[in-house]
Design brief:
Number of strands: 2
Strand order of the largest sheet: 1-2
CATH class of the largest domain: Mainly Alpha
Largest sheet: 2 strands, antiparallel
Number of domains: 2
Shape: globular
Distance between the termini: 32 Å
Structural class: mainly alpha
Order of helices and strands: HHHHEEHHH
Oligomer: single chain
Helix content: 55-70%
Radius of gyration: 16 Å
């Protein structure tokens, strides 16, 4: 895997260097909000990530300390991915992105998608409260 070069010492630029790729964000979302933990579960997401990109992003997220990887106790050939506390701490950013999209994307202006986004945001707020209360969220939750 390539080492990515720091573009500047701006905090926003640094954050984007760490996790600014859409696939990385969706992997974190899938672990945290959908309870996905394996390559097969990530590949089954509706966005259709390619296996080579998935492998690269998981390795990058692990290198950055956002996910951890371990062998599945039931099948050592399979890997299980979990969020580290650093990954769980990304939840407020996911909530902010979701709320921003719900406000400005015309697809969410009304109807069932708007309701679904509202439920998702409420679920994320609940996870934030749990995280503040010290509940372990590293294995993710299936809420969306």
């Amino acid at each position: 895997m390539k080492t990515r070069k720091r573009r500047s010492f701006c905090p926003m630029s640094s954050a984007l260097d760490r996790i600014g790729d859409k696939w990385s964000l969706l992997i974190v979302r899938d672990i945290l909000l959908r309870g996905k933990r394996t390559h097969g579960e990530f590949r089954a997401s509706s966005e259709g990530i390619a296996t080579n990109i998935l492998g690269d992003r998981l390795a990058w997220l692990e290198q950055e300390g956002i996910v951890s990887r371990e062998a599945d106790p039931a099948d050592a050939r399979r890997e299980i991915f979990s969020l580290t506390q650093k990954g769980v701490d990304f939840l407020p950013v996911l909530l902010a992105l979701s709320e921003w999209s719900a406000k400005y994307d015309v697809a969410f202006a009304g109807g069932p998608m708007r309701d679904r986004v509202s439920r998702l945001n409420e679920d994320m707020r609940g996870l934030l409260k749990n995280n503040a209360a010290g509940v372990d969220l590293r294995g993710g939750r299936t809420i969306f």
